[in-house]
Design a protein that fits this description.
Length: about 250
């Protein structure tokens, strides 16, 4: 069993995701402040996050500051832009070995179940998972039902399926979307067995509603959150993060 100790606190997880520069593009998500990775690092540190999620480029260029911050680094190993339409697949841009040499305490990987490329994605994930576990590094799988065959990516059936795929393929933590139906999330937790679940945040919403969403998720048995925009697009990200920390680590 791989230990999650380095990227959790009291068994709970609060990750700040900052892979959107590649996934969505800077013009859609960033403003003058949050375009700067150092601003994000400061939120992660002062806000009490148990991990910061970067792609390889930021992990390399800002490695001195990341190490100094002592925030556990999680490197997202694959990614894609939003420019290509059609069936989704992310390319591997960083090996586990490189991630470890950059100081990663965990690695992330996106799996699009339902995509035409699913078999290649799952095959790649298998190799990454094997390698990461050789280094005793936990693997977080972002599992999103997506592609032409997926009619509703937030249906109970698809989300519960995504959760079980996470357990079956060997993810230690599964990052899933939450459709605001507690009974669906409880079922997702149940089918994930000994694998743990964190929920994604999505685009920026009303702060009170976001806090409520996090409470609901924690009540349903997930170990935490892996969110980006709702935190670093907030007017006061540190204040918000502290409120989230109280809910998550209480
Ligand atoms: P957010 O909280 O900003 O939504 O980040 C969570 C996340 O999973 C990111 O890690 C990733 O870049 C993004 O959402 C993917 O979102 P999309 O659904 O647009 O592919």
């Amino acid at each position: 069993m791989i230990s999650l100790n380095k990227i959790t606190k009291k068994g709970k997880a609060m990750y700040l995701a900052y892979d959107q520069g590649l996934e969505h593009g800077p013009e859609s998500d960033f403003n003058d402040k949050n375009i700067d990775p150092l601003y994000i690092l400061e939120i992660a540190k002062k806000g009490g996050f148990t991990g910061i999620i970067f792609h390889k480029g930021i992990a390399e260029k800002y490695s001195v500051e990341i190490k100094k911050s002592k925030i556990p680094l999680i490197i997202k190993l694959n990614g894609k832009t939003r420019l290509v339409k059609g069936e989704p697949i992310s390319s591997i841009i960083c090996s586990v070995k490189e991630a470890v040499s950059l100081g990663a305490k965990g690695v992330g990987f996106t799996i699009y179940i339902g995509s035409k490329y699913e078999s290649k994605i799952i095959e790649d994930f298998g190799k990454i998972q094997h390698e990461a576990h050789k280094y005793k590094i936990p693997v977080i799988a972002w599992i999103y039902p997506r592609g032409k065959s997926i009619k509703n990516d937030l249906s109970r059936e698809n989300l519960v399926y995504a959760s079980r795929v996470g357990l079956e393929v060997g993810a230690d933590i599964i990052k899933l979307k939450y459709n605001r139906k507690k009974s669906d999330l409880k079922r997702m937790v149940e089918v994930a067995g000994k694998a743990k679940i964190v929920v994604a945040g999505g685009s920026k919403k009303n702060e009170e509603d976001f806090i409520k969403e996090v409470k609901e998720a924690m009540d349903s048995g997930v170990i935490g959150i892996a969110v980006g925009r709702n935190v670093w697009q907030s007017k006061d990200p540190i204040k918000l993060s502290k409120k989230l920390g109280k809910i998550i680590f209480k």
